[in-house]
Write a structure and sequence with these properties.
Length: 151
């Protein structure tokens, strides 16, 4: 999503990703099992402090959701509820893409650049499909964007 919309950040909650994909040909059927809901993508501008607050609300909820992230890294301590972003500045304005489901939970942002009714708002699985077609071969790597601590 971040690549397609050329944003600073992208997120998806872990429960939106439904199935692991086995090695081999990555078919449209596999894309749809990975992202089965067909959520449309929304692009917003928001301050770093509002982004941090949004992520923290997901993680510290009574039923916490792990947020998958692109464009930044964070450390989360579920015991102390401490969330640390080394690379997000509170007063910097970031562009963020997220699906319309998560956008519905975002209470503070500066501007909507692409809403779910915009012609450029694609379903999440279509964005993934286009990215895969562009890459041709996917070689996943561990990027350590999320660290869970217990210190």
């Amino acid at each position: 999503m971040r690549n397609h919309y050329k944003t600073d950040l992208a997120i998806i909650d872990g429960s939106g990703i439904r199935k692991s994909v086995s090695k081999g040909d990555f078919t449209l059927e596999k894309v749809r099992t990975l992202l089965p809901f067909g959520n449309k993508i929304v692009v917003v501008k928001l301050l770093g402090k509002d982004f941090k607050k949004f992520i923290h609300s997901y993680l510290s909820n009574s039923k916490p959701k792990l947020i998958q992230i692109s464009g930044a890294t964070y450390q989360w301590n579920p015991e102390t509820k401490e969330l640390v972003f080394d690379d997000i500045k509170d007063d910097f304005l970031y562009s963020l893409c997220l699906n319309d489901y998560n956008f519905g939970k975002l209470s503070t942002y500066d501007e909507v650049l692409i809403d779910s009714n915009h012609i450029d708002s694609l379903e999440d699985y279509i964005v993934l499909k286009q990215y895969i077609q562009q890459l041709k071969i996917i070689n996943p790597t561990i990027e350590n964007r999320i660290t869970i601590t217990h210190e």
